[in-house]
TrEMBL record:
Species whose genome carries this gene: Undibacterium aquatile
Cofactors demanded by this protein: Mg(2+)
Keyword set includes Hydrolase: yes
Cross-referenced Gene3D superfamilies: HUPs (3.40.50.620), Nucleoside Triphosphate Pyrophosphohydrolase (3.90.79.10)
This enzyme's EC code(s): 2.7.7.1, 3.6.1.-
Protein known as: Bifunctional nicotinamide-nucleotide adenylyltransferase/Nudix hydroxylase
Any one GO MF annotation of this record: hydrolase activity
Keywords: Hydrolase, Nucleotidyltransferase, Transferase
Record's keyword annotation contains Hydrolase: yes
Domain Nudix hydrolase: 204-343
């Protein structure tokens, strides 16, 4: 074993961990005593894009290693901030915290990876680390593996088809996981997303959707709706939806808010309570396609919570104390927790 570096860092979502990832991890282990695996997309609800929790991914990766190598590898979960600079700072800070106590001298740190496509741009955010680029050793990727798993007609045949691309520990985990209710729900979500995409195939260009969302705060509480259908069935979300052709953004936000919650507040009162509007445009924020939303923050000066009744495509509507939202991060649809964080500063950095 050569020790060219003190620490090697490997960043990815690993949804799931496959042989290409395993080769990167082997390269990291051959170059440093200690390897830190940064697990992206942590602390979010299960989805077709992120079917496995960070704990499950850490267990899959660890099980693929020898006992000696398991001692050399540690895992750092990092959430999707939908903000590149904030995400990169979080990764760097967590790596720094993980290597505290390894000596007073500056550590020689390597960043291991390969540039798959434009989505690999995040690797450019760490110029302070020595970049080591690996060769791509497999012809498939995690996106294609997930597609096969969720579209499977014959699960055993599907597992046999992808087994060459998966470490044995991952195949064993997935063989059991596909028998769970979590998998069954994501299959339904996959089917719904495919229906969306099939409906757009006739468009001359890839569509970009415009949506509106409402953050309504009253007496230390925020109004949320529970989604009644896929994608995101059962998850909590902000009241909102697609903008109609003939309405202004504010009109659309108020319309969607009233349609989904029957909030007992007049439109003039809502317009008066509007304190902020922000655009959320991260390309990966929605699985339905490129969706740019305009979130409207209404801070109503009321002492009591107005009546609400769920309607339209909302299964439930409820008021939640702002102090409880941080504990609900993994129950939110898409990036809605991060929209709330932008207005209400929910995330405590370092956690």
């Amino acid at each position: 074993m050569t020790n060219n570096f003190d620490v090697a860092v490997l960043i990815g979502r690993f949804q799931p961990f496959h042989q290409g990832h395993a080769s990167l991890l082997a390269l990291a282990l051959s170059n440093a005593d200690k390897v830190i695996v940064v697990l992206g997309s942590a602390f979010c609800a299960r989805s077709v894009r992120n079917p496995f929790t960070w704990q499950e991914r850490a267990a899959m990766i660890s099980a693929s290693l020898s006992e000696a190598d398991q001692e050399r590898v540690s895992f750092i979960p990092v959430r999707d901030y939908y903000n590149d600079l904030r995400w990169a700072n979080a990764v760097q800070n967590k790596v720094t915290q993980a290597i505290v106590g390894r000596g007073d001298e500056a550590l020689h740190i390597a960043l291991i990876g390969y540039v798959k496509d434009a989505s690999s741009y995040y690797l450019q955010h760490f110029p302070q680390w020595q970049w080591i680029e690996a060769e791509r050793v497999v012809t498939t990727d995690a996106t294609q593996i997930r597609q096969q798993l969720f579209a499977a007609k014959d699960m055993q045949a599907t597992l046999d088809a992808v087994v060459a691309f998966l470490p044995l520990s991952v195949k064993r985990f997935i063989s059991e996981w596909v028998l769970t209710p979590d998998y069954a729900g994501l299959v339904q979500e996959h089917l719904q997303l495919q229906k969306y995409k099939d409906a757009w195939k006739a468009a001359p260009y890839p569509p970009v959707f415009c949506t509106v969302d409402a953050v309504v705060k009253v007496a230390g509480h925020v109004l949320l709706v529970q989604r009644g259908g896929y994608p995101g069935k059962g998850l909590w979300a902000l009241p909102g939806g697609f903008l109609d052709q003939q309405e202004l953004l504010l009109q659309g936000a108020i319309r969607e808010l009233i349609e989904e919650t029957n909030l007992a507040v007049s439109k003039p009162e809502l317009e008066e309570a509007l304190v902020d509007v922000r655009v959320f445009d991260h390309p990966a924020r929605s699985q339905r396609g490129r969706t740019i939303t305009h979130a409207h923050f209404f801070d109503l000066p009321l002492a009591t919570l107005p009546e609400i009744v769920a309607a339209d495509d909302a299964a439930r509507a409820a008021w939640f104390p702002v102090t409880e939202l941080r504990l609900m991060e993994e129950q939110f649809f898409d990036d809605h927790f991060h929209i709330l964080d932008r207005f209400l500063q929910l995330i405590v950095e370092g956690n």
